[in-house]
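Request: Give me one sample?
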Amino acid sequence: MIQLFLQKFKESTLSILAIALFLTGVGLITLKSISTGHEGNYFQQSFYKQLFFLLPALIVFLIAFFIPRHTIHRYIYGLYGFMILLILIPFLGEEIASTYRWIRIGLPFGFQPSEFAKWIVVIALARYLSDHNLEMN
């Protein structure tokens, strides 16, 4: 009975969410344990920064999780081209640590296009391989 449950759990996509939440919890507990005793307000402590960004990250994850595969399949090449443009236009970024990798979006936050490009390249390559019935060795 337990073997069957574990097999079904491994096959379901919810297992990915459960594993990600478990690892997030372990990371938060570890971060809290090593950051005790640090002075400063909440947003100067690493634990509270991570906790603050956990809710928006979960919302983005759930939105991405429920996007139908055919929608991703349809628009991934357009996203791929858009990400190449963002990476090739360094003057849009603000200089941080003598580099122009960051793009400010008007908030006190910015993003690096290369972080999104990693995911988009993997998905675009998966689409290319599925379109051409190729397998990687």
Notes: The radius of gyration is 19 Å.
